[in-house]
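Need a sequence for this fold. Nothing fancy.
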């Protein structure tokens, strides 16, 4: 990555953030309703939606609960999907650790995921507004038609894709509705500082060095080595070389394992959610792995899963720092990936959620393929 492109990318991101801070003022207008003050907002599907100002009873579906937790507004939630009540909370969803006990005490409004929502239960809970991160226009309008409750669509950027500008717009919009504008601005500032730090540390690094492949990417479930992502946020944030971009496709990809041999990347990053499948595949195809330069030279590292019921922004940012340490160790001196992850995750969720993640996955470590199995070093 050249100095010019790095600086340009940083300036573009900062300019976008400045516009995002104005987003609530640009997107919302006030009107009077029969139950008090209301505002009209433009949601992330471009729909204009009239909602109560500063609602006290909310429901968050299809991944939107995470953003509500980020904004410290979970105390307003009156019902949750069953997937949010799993106990113990999945370590791949740090926000779940923060709310696990409280969520367990709330009524179910459906299973979550792609399962149907319990319309009757939602109606009985009398929410002021419903937020949803994974709805399309039809789903949002159909939900309002059936419940009589306004639905505001949010987004993280797309299924399995993190677009931090769109995610920040969503958080800004959510903050303006909930009256949590300051917290939304604090998150925006926090992410901006991180992006600037990552850009500063990688400024002037020659493009294409090293060449990186990311395998075992979680996408609507766990997958093995052939599951990758051409828009892997941590590498994009570093301006690093993602070999999957060479296919000129976007988002999540399933590829042939022979393509990995053709690329023969310098470094391989493994989404640790797929470690069980990776171990099984290595046991069945050891010759394939030993042909890879990154395996032979001990340059395979694990990163934490950031796609788990949509996108965990905090984990993606933590992965970016870990990838920086793996790829450009001289530029990231003084950064302990585990400590940095704990700091970032606590800021977003208010909980020491990385502790359980590290306990389950072993933290940010190198993977050793010597012998008959894979060991975490």
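Here you go.
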């Amino acid at each position: 990555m050249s100095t010019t492109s790095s600086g340009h990318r940083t300036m573009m991101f900062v300019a976008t953030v400045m516009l995002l801070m104005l987003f609530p003022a640009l997107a919302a207008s006030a009107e009077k309703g029969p139950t008090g003050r209301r505002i009209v907002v433009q949601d992330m599907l471009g729909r204009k939606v009239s909602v109560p100002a500063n609602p006290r009873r909310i429901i968050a579906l299809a991944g939107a609960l995470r953003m509500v937790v980020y904004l410290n507004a979970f105390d307003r939630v009156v019902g949750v999907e069953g997937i949010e009540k799993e106990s113990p909370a999945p370590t791949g969803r740090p926000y779940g650790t923060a709310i696990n006990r409280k969520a367990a005490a709330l009524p179910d409004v459906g299973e979550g995921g792609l399962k149907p929502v319990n319309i009757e239960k939602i109606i009985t809970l009398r929410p002021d507004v419903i937020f949803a991160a994974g709805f399309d226009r039809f789903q949002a309008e159909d939900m309002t038609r059936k419940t009589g409750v306004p639905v505001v669509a949010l987004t993280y950027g797309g299924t399995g894709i993190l677009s931090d500008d769109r995610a920040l717009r969503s958080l800004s919009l959510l903050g303006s509705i909930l009256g949590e504008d300051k917290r939304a601005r604090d998150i925006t500032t926090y992410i901006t500082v991180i992006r600037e730090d990552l850009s500063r540390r990688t400024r002037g690094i020659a493009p294409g060095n090293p060449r990186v492949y990311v395998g075992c990417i979680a996408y609507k479930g766990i997958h093995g080595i052939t599951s990758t992502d051409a828009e892997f946020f941590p590498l994009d944030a570093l301006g690093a070389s993602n070999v999957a971009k060479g296919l000129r496709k976007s988002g999540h990809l399933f590829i042939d394992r022979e393509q990995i041999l053709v690329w023969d990347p310098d470094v391989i990053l493994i989404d640790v959610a797929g470690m069980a499948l990776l171990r099984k595949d290595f046991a069945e195809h050891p010759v394939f792995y030993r042909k890879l330069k990154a395996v032979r030279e001990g340059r395979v590292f694990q990163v934490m899963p950031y796609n788990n019921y949509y996108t965990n922004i905090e984990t993606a940012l933590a992965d970016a720092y870990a990838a920086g340490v793996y790829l450009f160790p001289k530029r990231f001196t003084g950064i302990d990936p585990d400590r940095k992850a704990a700091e970032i995750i606590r800021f977003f969720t208010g909980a020491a959620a990385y502790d359980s993640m590290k306990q389950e996955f072993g933290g940010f470590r190198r993977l050793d393929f010597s012998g008959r199995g894979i060991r975490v070093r």
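For context: Residues 122 and 152 are 15 Å apart (CA to CA).
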